[in-house]
Design a protein that fits this description.
The chain is of the alpha/beta class. The chain has 9 helices and 27 strands. The protein folds into 2 domains: about 5-30 and about 400-510, Immunoglobulin-like; about 35-395, Glycosidases (TIM Barrel, Alpha-Beta Barrel). The two termini are about 15 Å apart. The protein binds alpha-L-arabinofuranose.
């Protein structure tokens, strides 16, 4: 028998625990989990860019590289973020990129009409963003202005960032200090065209999209252009139907979908001191992603059975009331173990649908909505969501392993949800990664994990949980919630008994 390295614990069937079984078919992987599912989003909104990413080149008190915070660079490099969407969001359809190049002192200003009417000084522009992406080792995903821009602006922007030489925009780029083009593959053709992007009807937007996409050229310095149509909000299936019906396949590589886990747009509830009822409702919203992805994919399958067009969930996450005393338009919210649950479930859903979901972006990276990083002047903290993203990065570009999961129920107020959620993958080295989430606020769940078609000699685990579901990290206690080594499993042959505490995310590594 091969040597087995297992952290042995006594397996206990505790009162109230429910039997859960997970079968992992380790020999049947077919699809790759694109690393781009683990993308992020940086909008000119509140303190995401200014104060979050960018503090200015002349800032003497916060260590920075070309104005970008060094602590943020390190934290995001540790996450291996695959792509970063910019400059919005709603802001994108008000943004004129030529205002953000050239000497900073000469750049025109702009009123940020969607996000508090604050004055945008354009000091963080195209060069700042693309150079930052190079520092982070991430691919840029640029969102073009369709709502209030022109086709010519987009033509020029693509040429400016991607054309190698001997073109008017390449010359302008060189005058501004950048000789070589950057590599920009992902282009969003507008954002939320049904709303802040222009309040368009899908039939009208489909035609507008066709026109813009026609002129969004690949200047052959990237591995192909990837044009993303503004997509549906939540369950607007008609939108997806029209996009798939009316846009020629040779003009589109991705279609977006936005879904926020919000309790009620008129009563979002607090980010921290929430009730179990509010928690349960948030979990229902997070779980809803499964149905949304499935049903939008079903529509896409009818037009595109080869799955050439990706479903791009380029905005997802929890959305609550802003922190008391902060600007209501800046969307600054704390981040608790509830957010860790949203992240764990959502990323498992994306993994399990990786044949169609090939890009996604958590909203948003710093100080806005379900952020992975919060900053306060020179202080910075990593949120529970950050830790889930870090634990799950093992799935990036790994092969999805089909699973069969029988979950117990998380019951609250006469309603119920599956308590346990999972996904599994195998990386290039043959290591198997299994991510498990128990959303039950009260009860632990023991999962009987059976691995088919592969053996393993070693198993290790990491867990994110805390004493209370409302626990979060603060600038005074930045490490209150952080991952620790997980040991609550036993092994019997190819079967593992894994005990998940209430509201926990666990990543198992089998070698
Ligand atoms: O992420 C915040 C906003 O939510 C985005 O700007 C917009 O696209 C969405 O409505």
């Amino acid at each position: 028998m091969l040597p087995v390295v297992v952290a042995l614990t006594i397996f206990q069937w505790t009162a109230g625990a429910q039997p859960v079984s997970l079968m992992v078919n380790a020999d049947q992987g077919e699809h790759t989990i694109s690393r781009h599912i683990y993308g992020h989003f940086a909008e000119h909104l509140g303190r995401c860019i200014y104060g979050g990413f960018y503090v200015g080149e002349d800032n003497a008190s916060i260590p920075n590289t070309n104005g970008v915070r060094n602590d943020v660079i390190k934290a995001l490099k540790d996450l291996d973020i695959p792509n970063l969407r910019w400059p919005g969001g709603c802001f994108a359809d008000t943004y004129h990129w030529k205002d953000g190049i050239g000497p900073k002192s000469e750049r025109p200003t702009l009123v940020n009409r969607w996000w508090g009417g604050v004055l945008e000084d354009n000091s963080f522009g195209t060069h700042d963003f693309l150079n930052m992406c190079e520092l982070l080792g991430t691919e840029p995903y640029m969102a073009a202005n369709v709502g209030s821009g022109t086709v010519q602006e987009l033509i020029d922007w693509v040429q400016y960032v991607s054309h190698p030489k001997d073109s008017p925009m390449a010359e302008l780029r060189k005058q501004n200090g950048r000789e070589e083009p950057w590599k920009v593959k992902f282009w969003g053709i507008g954002n939320e065209a049904w709303g802040c992007g222009g309040n368009m009807r899908p039939e009208y937007y489909a035609d507008v999209y066709r026109k813009y996409a026609t002129f969004t050229s690949d200047w052959s310095n990237s591995d192909g252009i990837f044009r993303i149509a503004s997509g549906a909000s939540d369950d607007d299936y008609h939108w997806t139907e029209v996009m798939m019906r009316d846009i020629n396949r040779n003009l589109i590589e991705g279609i977006a979908l936005h879904h926020y886990s919000v309790i009620d747009w008129s009563a979002k509830g607090p980010a921290t001191g929430f009730s179990e009822e509010q928690y349960f409702t948030t979990m229902q919203r997070a779980w809803n992603m499964e149905e949304l992805v499935t049903r939008h994919s079903t529509i896409m399958d009818r037009y595109d059975p080869q799955k050439r067009v990706a479903l791009v969930v380029d905005e997802w996450g929890g959305w609550y009331n802003v922190e008391p005393g902060t600007n209501g338009a800046f969307l600054y919210q704390q981040n608790t173990m509830r957010d860790a649950m949203i992240a764990g479930i959502t990323l498992n859903i994306f993994n399990n649908h990786c044949d169609r979901v090939r890009v996604a972006n958590l909203a948003q990276t710093i100080n806005v909505l379900q952020a992975v990083i919060l900053t306060d002047e020179e202080k910075m903290l990593l949120t529970p969501t950050y830790h889930v993203m870090r634990m799950y990065k093992a799935h990036q570009d790994a092969t999805l392993l089909p699973i069969s999961l029988q979950s117990g129920e998380y019951q609250f107020g006469g309603k119920s949800l599956p308590a346990v959620h999972a996904s599994a993958s195998r990386d290039d080295e043959g290591t198997i990664h299994i991510s498990l989430v128990n959303i039950d606020a009260e009860k632990e769940n023991t999962v009987q994990v059976t691995l088919h078609g592969a053996g393993f000699e070693q198993i290790s685990g990491e867990i994110l949980t805390s004493a209370k579901i409302t626990d979060h990290n603060t600038f005074d206690q930045p490490d209150k919630v952080q991952p620790t080594t997980f040991r609550r499993f036993t092994r019997e042959g190819s079967t593992l008994n894994v005990t998940l505490p209430p509201f926990s995310v666990v990543m198992l590594t089998l070698k």
